[in-house]
Design a protein that fits this description.
Length: 402
């Protein structure tokens, strides 16, 4: 997709540990096909052709938005969980899981299932390794974020069931963890979880945390049968988005709604779009009533609150400081069963929600967006995805450590 200006372009832990079978080397991801290798290499070549700049409205990064400071929220539980996970790895696993903190490996993630990923995969982990990996997620995420992450993994298993038990391509264990840098109290480091419909980038510097880009999606979004029957995801993000557009009066809706029909996939900030140039569109939050602003903040919170609660509060304070500059834009219908796309965009947050066309649900009409395939992404514009603006400032202060 081309970069766009102006108009929009088309007792949890026990459950987690018991769900996956014990690790076995024979269960590790099958050797990737030559086609997968070629497609992965081509995606990386295109996506990493430019040095990282970050999402901007006009190609120019706004500086001074993300100062290094104390938040008063300890990141020690995350560090200790990462150290415990690393301690379970074999030397061979550590060699392919650990990267320097400034490594381009941060940017090598993709929602699509074919992508060849680095790190250690859940499917190959021993029981102890898997327990430590989930503890890292548990220490880093809120209960909501942990539940949604695990349910996305479960729904990937359901997708395998729906494709003639094709668990070589769709499986709850096909998710990989990498660590960038060495977990430390004051030095920068972080971790990444990468797999189909679930990508979390988690950067730590002291007591500051950046958890973007984070991609959460699913196809299907609900398991109506199978091993995880009843599992469902992204319903609050869907319902609260629709409630917000419904809360606008006619004049406000005219500003927020870019198009009333949705005929394809519209998300523009997904994998390998780190330098996306995207102008603001839609209605400004400064034009909303106090009640509508509260609804907008609650909707943003659905994405931000996947982080550990205390760190999410810090991020939401940052969002509030730029609330009047925040835009809300919509494409699609506004009926209870409509398919749609919405975007929330400010100097410090970019959120997209998109009903996608079917890919692996073969019973659905090709090329027609469906509520059974949802993509969402949250990013930090102006150079602080992956905590890169914090890392830049850290190296300016401590050049000998680079």
């Amino acid at each position: 997709m081309a970069d766009g200006h102006g108009p929009l372009i088309p007792a949890i832990c026990a459950l987690l540990l018991g769900a996956l079978a014990p690790g076995d080397a024979a269960l590790a991801q099958q050797p990737p096909s030559e086609r997968a290798r070629r497609m992965s290499a081509e995606a990386e070549a295109r996506g990493l052709a430019e040095p990282f700049r970050g999402v901007t409205t006009d190609g120019e990064v706004v500086r001074g938005l993300f100062p290094i400071r104390s938040t008063g929220v300890s990141s020690a539980p995350v560090r200790k969980a990462a150290e415990a996970f690393l301690a379970t790895l074999t030397p061979e696993q550590r060699a392919r899981t650990l990267f320097p903190v400034e490594d381009p490996e941060w940017r090598k993630w993709m929602n699509q299932h074919f992508y060849i990923r680095q790190g250690t995969g859940f499917k190959e982990m021993s029981g102890a390794q898997r327990e430590a990996a989930f503890e890292l997620l548990r220490a880093s995420l809120s209960a909501k974020g942990l539940q949604q992450s695990r349910d996305i993994m479960r729904l990937n298993q359901r997708l395998g069931e729906l494709n003639d038990d094709n668990f070589a391509e769709y499986d709850e264990g096909l998710y990989w963890i990498t660590l960038m840098g060495t977990p430390a109290e004051q030095e920068p480091w972080g971790w990444q979880l990468d797999g189909h419909h679930l990508v979390i980038n988690y950067f730590v510097l002291g007591d500051q945390v950046v958890m973007t880009p984070t991609f959460m999606g699913s196809e299907p979004v609900t398991a109506t049968a199978g091993k995880y029957q009843g599992t469902t995801v992204l319903q609050d993000e869907q319902a609260k988005g629709l409630a917000l557009i419904d809360a606008l009066d006619p004049a406000q809706r005219q500003k927020a709604i870019i198009e009333t029909t949705k005929t394809g996939n519209l998300a523009v900030g997904e994998a390998f779009r780190d330098n996306l140039v995207l102008d603001y569109a839609g209605i400004r939050a400064s034009e909303l009533t106090a009640a509508q602003k509260a609804q907008l903040l609650d909707l943003i919170g659905e994405y931000v609150r996947n982080m550990r609660d205390e760190h999410a509060s810090v991020k939401m304070d940052e969002v509030r400081r730029h609330l009047d500059e925040t835009r809300f834009a919509w494409i699609g219908g506004t009926q209870p069963d409509s398919v749609f796309y919405y975007r929330i965009h400010s100097p410090v947050v970019l959120i997209e929600f998109d009903h996608q066309t079917p890919v692996a649900l073969r019973h659905l009409e090709r090329g027609k967006p469906t509520r059974e395939h949802i993509h969402t992404v949250i990013r930090t514009p102006n150079g602080n995805d992956y905590g890169k603006d914090l890392l830049r400032q850290h190296y300016e202060r401590h050049p000998h450590e680079h």
